[in-house]
Amino acid sequence: MKLSEFAGYGDKMEQLMRSVQAGRIVHALLFVGPHGSGKRTMARLFAQAMVCAAPMKPCGECPACKRFLAGSHPDVKVVRPEKKSIGVEEIRALIDALSLRPYEGDKHIAMIEQADKMTPNAQNALLKTLESPPGEVRFFLITDAPGALLETIISRCQTVRFGDIGVELCAKVLERRGIEPRRAALLAGLSQGSVGRALEIDADGEWMALRERVIASLEALKGPASVAAAAVPLEEDKGGEAGILDIMELWARDLMAVQSGAMPYEASDAQRLGSSRIDGQALLRGVLQARQQLGSNVSWPNALENMYFQLTDTGNNGRTKLSWQR
Ligand SMILES: [Zn+2]
C-alpha cells in the first residue's frame, strides 16, 4: 500500500513526509486514535518510508522495505507490551540498542506500540532519550489512550490524530481491498467507519451468522406470549451475551435512524428495519438494562427474557414500546 492510497489520511501523511524531506525533522511522532482507526498501519507505513531506498517511498520492493515488512530490519526497533505493561527494563534495552551505530542507514527507528502501556518508570526512562537521542533516532509512539502518557512525553512529540474515517470512505477502502461492494457497505456500517474493526468483523465468519440469529430472534417477538420461544436460540449462547448485546445495540441504532426518517447504511436491511415492530429507543434501553443486570449476577436467560418482556409490554406509554397494532 502507498501512502497516498491510505484513504482519508493521504494528505496528512504526504505533508509529514514533505516536512521530513525538507529537513524539518520531526524526531518523535505520537500517533493517537481509537482502535481500528488505522494509526498503527499509518505509523508503520511512515517508518517504512523512512528506511526505503526507492524514490517513491515506501516502494515495498527494495531490500530495506522487504526487511522492514519481514520485521528483520536491523535499524528498526519495535517495543510492544509482551505482558500487561511495558516496563522500565524494556525501555532501557531499547535505549541501549539506540546508542549503537545504525547498521544500514544513518538512523534508527524506534516504534513503541500501545505506548500507554508503559509504566510511569518506563516513561520517565524514555523521557531523556526522547529529549536528546543518542544519534539519529526517529520515534513512533502509538496509542489509543494518550491520557495514560505523561504530559512531558506528549509535549516532546508531534501528535498525529486519527479518527474513524466515516462510513462511506470506509466502504471504499474495503472495496479497494477486494471486498464485494454490498458487503463492504454493510461492514463499514457495522464498524461505524472503522476500517480495522470492519476487517475484524469480516475475518470473523461467525459474527455475521450470530447477527442474523440475533435479528431473527428480535423479529420473532410478537407479543408477551412469544418471549420464551424468541429468546431460546440466544439463551444457549453461553459466554456470548456481550457480543449479542453489542449486535442488539447496533440494530437499535439502525432502528432509531430509520424510525426518525434516515436511510439505513445497508439497503438490504431497509425492509427489515422498516417493518420492525420494535422501537429503537426501547431496544437500546433494554440493552443497557440487560448489561447492568448481567453485571449484578442476573443470569443471561433471565436478563434476556426481562428485556423481551419489557419490549412486548404494551401497557406502558405506547410509542416507546412495540407497536403491535401495525
Ligand atoms: Zn522500498
Number of domains: 2
What is the fold named in CATH at topology level of the largest domain?
Rossmann fold
Strand content: 5-15%
Counting helices, strands and paired strands, the structural category is: alpha/beta
CATH homologous superfamily descriptor of the largest domain: P-loop containing nucleotide triphosphate hydrolases
Q: Which regions are unreliable across 5 or more consecutive residues at pLDDT < 50? A: 316-326
The CATH architecture of the largest domain can be given as 3-Layer(aba) Sandwich
Structural write-up:
By secondary structure, the protein is of the alpha/beta class. The chain folds into two domains: 159 residues, P-loop containing nucleotide triphosphate hydrolases (Rossmann fold, 3-Layer(aba) Sandwich), CATH 3.40.50; 117 residues. 52% of the residues lie in helices and 8% in strands. The protein has a five-stranded parallel sheet, sandwiched between helices. α7 packs across α8, α10 runs antiparallel to α11 and α11 packs antiparallel against α15. The C terminus is likely disordered. Bound molecules: zinc ion. Zinc ion binds next to α3.
